[in-house]
Specification:
Blueprint (H helix, E strand, L loop, with lengths): L7 H6 L26 H20 L8 H20 L7 H24 L3 H28 L5 H27 L6 H18 L2 H21 L6 H18 L3 E4 L12 H23 L14 H11 L20 H30 L7 H16 L10 H18 L19 H41 L4 H14 L4 H13 L3 H13 L5 H13 L3 H14 L4 H13 L3 H14 L1 H13 L1 H10 L12 H14 L9
Length: 660
């Protein structure tokens, strides 16, 4: 049967899931050290939404598809949340981070509104769901290929790279299951393949949270389906999926090559590395709570957890110096708060948290109000996927902070509200172009006329913002790729001219300057790096080293003291301070600091102090014959080893050896 060709807007919207693949596409090179937000997916999202908004404006935006419930419970809380995020620009430590958060959430809202425009077109929906399943399959194939080609000892790298994709797959998984197990589903075998492939991809990611969330999402979907849409389930296909799902899970966790094979269950073990991530989460959560206590009404500014981390950690340590978790993550940058709700509370205060909670409460209210009516399996699957996403957000570092994951949630929300958001009174839009300017019809027509234009403006702002960010990161990469500092300097200066708040760029440039002996130039950049989020013990060490080399001993001591205020249990930084005091002729003070480090970790303190005062070669010789000393490459943090060698190469070459 001939089907009329649908307008380009609906066909293009169906390709939204391609956004999940943007990070795999060839793009502008960027540096290894990136602090804060990225730009590629944001740029692609803005370009995609901008094109859709232009097409929709030509087709005449139709507000009549949104119910009053949807407007009051979903759209308005989101709009208010975006507005409050935007206001925080005025008090945030980094206005760029706050602007990024505001533009991203504005894009989420636009994405949701545009997808809702499409869901009334069956052909477009069918294409959209098929492309979504195809994207999940591609993501899983990439993840599995990486898993199979990665040595077991590097399993943590797989989880770090693919955990965010696993979170997106888990959110979409119930929809794929619904399309595979529904009686009236088209191409159920294809969606069965997509669903099982998606689960294999989650397992291959070695992401523990998503492993649990995937089980919970599938179980919740089947529970909702049995309760509210039992007659729509094809039980034989559902049983086939369940059997295959369980078989894949069991077989994937059996080690066929001895104890070296990496599995998700092994990552739940109680070894040091696996327990570290749990301990660090508790530390970050407490620091987020401290941020809220310090700024309960305004918060520290949208997306400013990282820029404000140094200040907040300083306040936290002042009242929790004996917290044993302070010994962790001294040389690793805080990757957000690992809890979306606490991070919103810290960054946007009570008003922002209330608006976000109102948005979530609106979703729940729509579900509970419709619980006795017939709904499709896809709508129930969307509810299950959103629930899994929101539960995962309590321990995840990704959640809405990763744009590709955020659009997955809002895609599911659009599927959900298409049915659950229906009320008996939709937005009644008058077609009377001459309506009185004080009548509801006038304002409703204004929304229909100008909302697509407003969306284009927001998308253009995001394009410019993310484009500038991308260009700045490119110049950092270009500078880092130059061997000679004179050749690298113009690139670094261009990067900082575009984004002067980029702590990563300041750190890399300052480090290069220091290594070339330009200590006076390096100091302000290293200081700026710390102030803009790169507040690690290694950063403090480089700053103190540059100040020592530049003859600013008093400033160096203040840098050590500041670093030790934030990291009182850092053996590396405390022994470095002890060595500094010893070189200044303050032997008694040096011994006091050394004993503090010794009480924290005897082996590390003894070894670091030898490396600081007598060199790495001396430590290597001692470690070979005396078990009280640690091998050079077992010193913690590893980055501190190279920082010490850089300093010794400049200030005390006889202690430096090329082989280290």
């Amino acid at each position: 049967m001939f089907r009329p060709r649908q307008p380009l807007f609906y066909s293009l919207t169906a390709f939204w899931s391609v956004l999940l693949l943007v990070n795999f596409l060839p793009a502008v090179p960027q540096p290894g050290l990136i602090i804060g937000y990225l730009w590629k997916v944001e740029f692609a999202l803005a370009l995609f939404l901008g094109a859709l908004s232009v097409l929709l404006a030509r087709r005449d935006f139709d507000p009549k598809i949104y119910s009053k419930n949807e407007l009051l419970l979903i759209i308005l809380p989101l709009l208010a949340f975006v507005a409050w995020s935007g206001l925080s620009i005025f008090w945030a430590e980094s206005w760029r981070f706050a602007a990024h958060h505001t533009l991203l959430w504005a894009c989420y809202l636009i994405f949701y509104l545009l997808v809702r425009q499409t869901l009334g077109k069956p052909n477009a929906v069918d294409l959209m769901l098929t492309l979504t399943g195809t994207t999940v399959f591609i993501l899983s194939a990439i993840g599995v290929a990486e898993y199979l080609s990665t040595p077991p000892e590097n399993a943590g790298d797989i989880s770090l790279r693919y955990g965010k994709y696993a979170e997106a797959i888990v959110a979409l998984l119930p929809v794929l299951i619904a399309l595979a197990a529904g009686k009236k589903s088209r191409r159920p075998a294809l969606f069965l393949i997509f669903a099982l492939a998606g689960w294999i991809g989650v397992i291959a990611s070695l992401a523990r949270t998503q492993f649990l969330s995937g089980h919970a999402a599938a179980a919740l979907f089947f529970a909702l389906a049995v309760l509210f849409a039992r007659k729509k389930i094809h039980f034989k296909r559902a049983a086939l999926f369940a059997a295959a799902f369980l078989l894949i899970t069991v077989l994937s966790q059996i080690s066929f090559s001895g104890n070296r094979q990496a599995t998700t269950l092994k990552r739940f073990s109680a070894d040091t590395n696996n327990q570290l991530s749990v301990k660090v989460r508790f530390l970050f959560w407490r620091i987020a709570v401290r941020s809220f206590r310090d700024h309960p009404l305004t918060g520290i500014g949208a997306d400013n957890f990282t820029p404000a981390y140094r200040t907040t950690r300083d306040r936290y340590v002042a009242t929790h110096r004996r917290d044993p978790k302070l010994i962790h993550y001294e040389a690793i940058l805080p990757e957000r708060a690992h809890n979306e709700y606490l991070q919103i509370l810290a960054e946007l205060g009570a008003p922002g948290f209330f608006l976000f909670a109102a948005f979530l409460a609106g979703i729940l209210w729509l579900f509970l109000r419709r619980r006795k009516r017939s709904v499709s399996l896809v709508a129930l699957a969307a509810a299950a996927g959103m629930t899994a996403f929101l539960v995962s957000s309590a321990v995840s570092s990704y959640s809405f902070r990763v744009p590709a994951n955020g659009v997955c949630f809002f895609f599911l929300l659009a599927l959900f509200t298409k049915e659950f958001g229906i009320s008996d009174f939709g937005l009644r839009i008058s077609d009377d172009e001459g309506a009185d300017k004080h009548s509801p019809a006038f304002y409703q027509n204004a929304v229909r006329r100008y909302l697509p234009a407003a969306a284009v403006v927001v998308c253009a702002a995001m394009l410019v913002f993310s484009g500038v960010r991308g260009a700045a990161l490119y110049y950092v990469w270009e500078g880092s790729s130059q061997i000679e500092l004179d050749a690298a300097r113009p690139a670094y200066e261009k990067a900082l001219a575009l984004d002067g708040d980029d702590g990563g760029a300041h750190f890399v440039f300052g480090q290069r300057l220091f290594l070339k002996g330009a200590a006076d130039e390096a100091v302000p950049h290293l200081r700026k790096a710390i102030d803009r989020g790169v507040a690690t013990t290694v950063s403090y060490y480089y700053l103190a080293a540059a100040e020592i080399y530049g003859g600013r001993a008093a400033d160096a001591e203040q840098t050590f003291l500041e670093g030790l205020r934030l990291y009182p249990r850092s053996v590396f930084l405390r022994t470095a301070y002890a060595a500094f005091l010893k070189s200044a002729g303050r032997a008694a003070d040096a011994e006091t600091e050394y004993q503090k480090a010794f009480r924290i970790n005897q082996h590390q303190a003894r070894s670091w102090y030898v490396a600081e005062t007598e060199g790495m070669e001396k430590l290597s010789l001692l470690a070979a014959t005396d078990c009280r000393y640690t091998e050079t490459m077992e010193l913690k943090p590893t980055a501190g080893i190279y920082a010490l060698l850089d300093f010794q190469q400049l200030s005390n070459p006889q202690l430096f050896r090329e082989k280290f």
